[in-house]
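[Discussion] Sanity-checking designs against the backbone

I'm trying to build intuition for which residues belong where. Below is a C-alpha coordinate string of 224 positions. I'd appreciate it if someone posts a full sequence so I can compare it with mine line by line.
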Protein backbone atom coordinates (compact mmCIF):
# COMPACT_ATOMS: atom_id res chain seq x y z
CA UNK A 1 0.00 0.00 0.00
CA UNK A 2 1.24 3.49 -0.79
CA UNK A 3 -0.90 6.61 -0.59
CA UNK A 4 1.23 8.52 -3.07
CA UNK A 5 2.97 10.53 -0.36
CA UNK A 6 6.69 10.67 0.36
CA UNK A 7 8.63 7.47 0.89
CA UNK A 8 8.44 6.47 4.55
CA UNK A 9 11.10 5.17 6.90
CA UNK A 10 9.32 3.56 9.82
CA UNK A 11 11.54 3.63 12.92
CA UNK A 12 10.21 0.93 15.23
CA UNK A 13 10.88 0.93 18.96
CA UNK A 14 9.72 -1.70 21.44
CA UNK A 15 11.08 -3.30 24.59
CA UNK A 16 11.92 -7.01 24.88
CA UNK A 17 8.62 -8.89 24.85
CA UNK A 18 6.70 -6.08 23.12
CA UNK A 19 6.29 -8.02 19.88
CA UNK A 20 8.54 -5.62 17.94
CA UNK A 21 10.17 -8.37 15.88
CA UNK A 22 6.78 -9.78 14.88
CA UNK A 23 5.52 -6.34 13.90
CA UNK A 24 8.65 -5.57 11.87
CA UNK A 25 8.03 -8.67 9.78
CA UNK A 26 4.26 -8.10 9.41
CA UNK A 27 4.72 -4.47 8.38
CA UNK A 28 6.84 -5.42 5.36
CA UNK A 29 3.62 -5.96 3.40
CA UNK A 30 2.00 -2.70 4.52
CA UNK A 31 3.49 -0.57 1.75
CA UNK A 32 5.96 -3.02 0.18
CA UNK A 33 8.80 -1.80 2.39
CA UNK A 34 11.57 -4.21 3.42
CA UNK A 35 12.33 -5.05 7.05
CA UNK A 36 15.83 -3.69 7.71
CA UNK A 37 17.41 -5.17 10.83
CA UNK A 38 20.93 -4.00 11.66
CA UNK A 39 21.55 -7.22 13.57
CA UNK A 40 20.59 -9.34 10.56
CA UNK A 41 22.71 -7.18 8.26
CA UNK A 42 25.78 -7.42 10.47
CA UNK A 43 25.46 -11.21 10.57
CA UNK A 44 24.97 -11.37 6.80
CA UNK A 45 28.11 -9.32 6.11
CA UNK A 46 30.13 -11.45 8.53
CA UNK A 47 28.93 -14.64 6.83
CA UNK A 48 29.65 -13.18 3.38
CA UNK A 49 33.19 -12.30 4.44
CA UNK A 50 33.09 -9.02 2.51
CA UNK A 51 35.08 -5.91 3.43
CA UNK A 52 32.43 -4.60 5.83
CA UNK A 53 31.94 -8.06 7.33
CA UNK A 54 35.66 -8.45 8.01
CA UNK A 55 35.68 -5.06 9.71
CA UNK A 56 32.69 -5.99 11.88
CA UNK A 57 34.18 -9.39 12.75
CA UNK A 58 37.45 -7.80 13.87
CA UNK A 59 35.60 -5.37 16.14
CA UNK A 60 33.45 -8.09 17.69
CA UNK A 61 36.36 -10.48 18.17
CA UNK A 62 38.11 -7.71 20.09
CA UNK A 63 35.13 -7.68 22.45
CA UNK A 64 34.03 -4.18 21.45
CA UNK A 65 30.69 -2.77 20.34
CA UNK A 66 30.31 -2.10 16.63
CA UNK A 67 31.00 1.67 16.35
CA UNK A 68 28.27 4.09 15.30
CA UNK A 69 29.98 5.17 12.08
CA UNK A 70 30.22 1.57 10.87
CA UNK A 71 26.54 0.88 11.61
CA UNK A 72 25.58 4.16 9.95
CA UNK A 73 27.50 3.19 6.80
CA UNK A 74 25.81 -0.21 6.83
CA UNK A 75 22.34 1.33 6.96
CA UNK A 76 23.07 3.91 4.25
CA UNK A 77 24.40 1.17 1.98
CA UNK A 78 21.18 -0.79 2.57
CA UNK A 79 19.04 2.23 1.68
CA UNK A 80 20.66 2.32 -1.78
CA UNK A 81 19.26 -1.09 -2.72
CA UNK A 82 16.40 -1.26 -5.20
CA UNK A 83 13.84 -2.78 -2.84
CA UNK A 84 13.72 0.40 -0.70
CA UNK A 85 11.92 2.42 -3.39
CA UNK A 86 8.70 2.47 -1.31
CA UNK A 87 10.52 2.95 2.01
CA UNK A 88 11.87 0.82 4.85
CA UNK A 89 11.00 -0.60 8.27
CA UNK A 90 14.00 0.03 10.55
CA UNK A 91 14.38 -2.48 13.38
CA UNK A 92 17.13 -2.12 15.97
CA UNK A 93 18.36 1.20 14.61
CA UNK A 94 19.08 3.82 15.81
CA UNK A 95 20.43 2.72 19.19
CA UNK A 96 22.37 5.86 20.13
CA UNK A 97 21.79 9.61 19.81
CA UNK A 98 24.67 9.85 17.35
CA UNK A 99 23.02 7.21 15.18
CA UNK A 100 19.69 9.05 15.42
CA UNK A 101 21.25 12.34 14.32
CA UNK A 102 23.04 10.67 11.41
CA UNK A 103 19.87 8.82 10.44
CA UNK A 104 18.00 12.11 10.02
CA UNK A 105 20.66 13.36 7.62
CA UNK A 106 20.78 10.05 5.76
CA UNK A 107 17.02 9.85 5.29
CA UNK A 108 16.99 13.43 4.01
CA UNK A 109 19.62 12.60 1.39
CA UNK A 110 17.59 9.62 0.18
CA UNK A 111 14.21 11.35 0.17
CA UNK A 112 12.75 9.30 3.02
CA UNK A 113 10.36 10.75 5.61
CA UNK A 114 10.82 9.30 9.12
CA UNK A 115 7.87 8.06 11.18
CA UNK A 116 8.42 6.73 14.72
CA UNK A 117 6.28 3.97 16.23
CA UNK A 118 6.78 3.11 19.89
CA UNK A 119 5.17 -0.17 20.94
CA UNK A 120 4.13 0.38 24.54
CA UNK A 121 3.57 -2.60 26.80
CA UNK A 122 3.20 -2.53 30.57
CA UNK A 123 6.38 -4.03 32.01
CA UNK A 124 4.41 -6.24 34.40
CA UNK A 125 2.65 -7.71 31.36
CA UNK A 126 6.01 -8.33 29.70
CA UNK A 127 7.40 -10.04 32.79
CA UNK A 128 4.31 -12.22 33.00
CA UNK A 129 4.50 -13.01 29.28
CA UNK A 130 8.20 -13.85 29.13
CA UNK A 131 8.56 -15.58 32.49
CA UNK A 132 5.67 -17.84 31.44
CA UNK A 133 7.60 -19.19 28.46
CA UNK A 134 8.67 -22.82 28.47
CA UNK A 135 10.70 -24.71 25.90
CA UNK A 136 11.18 -28.33 24.99
CA UNK A 137 14.92 -29.05 25.24
CA UNK A 138 14.57 -31.86 22.70
CA UNK A 139 12.57 -30.39 19.79
CA UNK A 140 12.78 -26.68 20.67
CA UNK A 141 9.01 -26.07 20.68
CA UNK A 142 8.03 -22.96 22.67
CA UNK A 143 5.01 -22.77 24.95
CA UNK A 144 3.51 -20.07 27.14
CA UNK A 145 1.72 -20.96 30.34
CA UNK A 146 -0.88 -18.25 29.70
CA UNK A 147 -1.35 -17.95 25.94
CA UNK A 148 -0.15 -21.30 24.58
CA UNK A 149 0.10 -23.90 27.36
CA UNK A 150 1.00 -27.54 26.74
CA UNK A 151 -1.85 -30.06 26.92
CA UNK A 152 -0.24 -31.63 30.00
CA UNK A 153 1.39 -29.20 32.42
CA UNK A 154 5.18 -29.19 32.06
CA UNK A 155 5.24 -31.77 29.25
CA UNK A 156 5.94 -31.23 25.53
CA UNK A 157 2.94 -32.13 23.36
CA UNK A 158 5.17 -33.50 20.61
CA UNK A 159 7.59 -35.84 22.38
CA UNK A 160 6.66 -35.96 26.08
CA UNK A 161 9.88 -34.30 27.23
CA UNK A 162 9.90 -32.20 30.42
CA UNK A 163 9.77 -28.51 29.52
CA UNK A 164 12.39 -26.09 30.83
CA UNK A 165 12.62 -22.37 31.53
CA UNK A 166 15.36 -20.72 29.50
CA UNK A 167 17.87 -18.76 31.62
CA UNK A 168 17.02 -15.48 29.88
CA UNK A 169 13.32 -15.95 30.75
CA UNK A 170 13.86 -15.71 34.51
CA UNK A 171 12.17 -12.70 36.13
CA UNK A 172 15.45 -11.21 37.35
CA UNK A 173 17.02 -11.34 33.88
CA UNK A 174 13.87 -9.93 32.25
CA UNK A 175 13.78 -6.99 34.68
CA UNK A 176 17.44 -6.26 33.97
CA UNK A 177 16.84 -6.31 30.21
CA UNK A 178 13.87 -3.96 30.58
CA UNK A 179 15.89 -1.54 32.71
CA UNK A 180 18.69 -1.54 30.14
CA UNK A 181 16.21 -0.96 27.32
CA UNK A 182 14.57 1.91 29.19
CA UNK A 183 17.93 3.53 29.93
CA UNK A 184 19.04 3.22 26.31
CA UNK A 185 15.80 4.14 24.57
CA UNK A 186 14.24 6.97 26.60
CA UNK A 187 16.74 9.59 25.28
CA UNK A 188 16.05 8.45 21.70
CA UNK A 189 12.29 8.76 22.10
CA UNK A 190 12.71 12.24 23.56
CA UNK A 191 15.06 13.18 20.70
CA UNK A 192 12.48 12.23 18.05
CA UNK A 193 9.67 13.98 19.94
CA UNK A 194 11.71 17.20 20.08
CA UNK A 195 12.69 16.83 16.41
CA UNK A 196 9.04 17.08 15.38
CA UNK A 197 9.08 13.71 13.63
CA UNK A 198 5.62 12.04 13.35
CA UNK A 199 5.55 10.00 16.55
CA UNK A 200 2.91 7.44 17.57
CA UNK A 201 2.64 5.25 20.65
CA UNK A 202 0.73 2.03 20.07
CA UNK A 203 -0.49 -0.45 22.67
CA UNK A 204 1.49 -3.59 21.94
CA UNK A 205 -0.70 -6.01 23.86
CA UNK A 206 -4.31 -4.82 23.54
CA UNK A 207 -5.04 -6.77 20.34
CA UNK A 208 -3.50 -9.61 18.38
CA UNK A 209 -0.38 -9.04 16.23
CA UNK A 210 -2.31 -8.65 12.95
CA UNK A 211 -4.70 -6.06 14.40
CA UNK A 212 -1.77 -4.08 15.83
CA UNK A 213 0.02 -4.27 12.48
CA UNK A 214 -3.08 -2.95 10.70
CA UNK A 215 -3.30 -0.03 13.15
CA UNK A 216 0.39 0.84 12.65
CA UNK A 217 0.03 0.60 8.88
CA UNK A 218 -2.83 3.08 8.96
CA UNK A 219 -0.83 5.49 11.10
CA UNK A 220 2.21 5.33 8.83
CA UNK A 221 0.40 5.59 5.50
CA UNK A 222 -2.45 7.93 6.47
CA UNK A 223 -1.16 9.72 9.56
CA UNK A 224 -4.05 8.57 11.75
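Best answer:
Here's mine. Compare freely.
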Amino acid sequence: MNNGGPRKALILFGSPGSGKGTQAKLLKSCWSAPHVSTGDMLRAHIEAGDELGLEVRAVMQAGMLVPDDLVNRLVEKRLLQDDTQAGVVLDGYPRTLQQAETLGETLGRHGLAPVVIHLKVDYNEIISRLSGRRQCPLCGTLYNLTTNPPKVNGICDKDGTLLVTRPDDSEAVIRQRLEEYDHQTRPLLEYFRRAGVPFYEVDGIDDGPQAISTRICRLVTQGG
